[in-house]
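[step 3/7] fold_predict: job queued, chain A
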Amino acid sequence: MRSKINGYLVGMETLRTAKDQDLSNVIVLDGLIHRFEFQFERSIKLIRAMLKYEGIVSIDSPRDVLKEAYAAYDFIDEDVWLDMIIDYVDTKNIPDYSEKQRMLVQNLLDRYLPAFEAVLSAAIEKFPEDAKLAVDQLEDGKKNRVNWKPPVAK
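[step 4/7] structure written:
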């Protein structure tokens, strides 16, 4: 569980900075959409692991995971997560500089980021020891990144 929480935390660290980015830049929008895809996938994996811990094991698709999670947990907003599934599927066909791209990023900031935070809070509450180890691992990773320098283009 610790590795799932750790991966989730890493994704959240990046997404939490989204509002501070230049949202008029198509590269930033594209990057945020890819981050959304990754975080959605991590969310489904983390929720699935939480459900398995509860003894609910026969779940395969993201829709099934969310259906079971909605029945088991009060932190799942069914409307938000169903919209998220639709947006996740649509990410494969969003053209740059489109209204659809802008709307997805707005949904990410306004609706999906709080839903991702709710999953993280529930995981921390349910697995506090694993969460503490994951946070410690994340902090150690941040220390190592301080000395990292990007490659220089030639």
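[step 5/7] annotate
The mean pLDDT is 89.
Residues 26-53 form the longest helix (28 residues).
exit 0
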